[in-house]
Amino acid sequence: MTANLNGANWFKSSRSTPNGECVEIAFLDDDMVGVRDSKNPSGSALVFTPGAWDAFTAGVASGEFSIPST
Question: 32 lies in a domain?
């Protein structure tokens, strides 16, 4: 999937740390959401459809992607 990222307004979470290891998101045309590495702003970005973004953020909130404790 491709999306026009020109002029996208990228931002980091208010919980980001100052060490620069963050992701940035941008709300794009057609309700798409872009995600990129803040250390490499000219690199590639992931683009999510609205439904995929909702499923991803719900999975994060529920701990679906957490590393299991040992």
Answer: yes
